[in-house]
Amino acid sequence: xxxxxxxxxxxxxxxxxxxxxxxxxxxxxxxxxxxxxxxxxxxxxxxxxxxxxxxxxxxxxxxxxxxxxxxxxxxxxxxxxxxxxxxxxxxxxxxxxxxxxxxxxxxxxxxxxxxxxxxxxxxx
Length: 124
Description:
single chain; 3-stranded antiparallel β-sheet; 5 helices; about 40% helix; elongated
């Protein structure tokens, strides 16, 4: 994991309590804010959705992502770089193309952080 990647929902599941379990400390809040900032842009949110929709272990070529936007290829690459730096996705170059996938467990850990525990007998 690079120093720029998001550590709260990265490989160590025990490092981040759920939102309703305990208050975040300053470092956890700063790390988590990077993820929300990365997902707070409509283009990056769409890119994340396009990549995640491939399912577990699925990947998508940048050549499939770029045509979905009215943006230049360097702009799309910049948005993908920010998602990588936030620890949400990873990639691999194969020849002239780059393939992207969601890091295992990242979305589940983020969902678990945001989910409030249901009290016995409580309705959704």
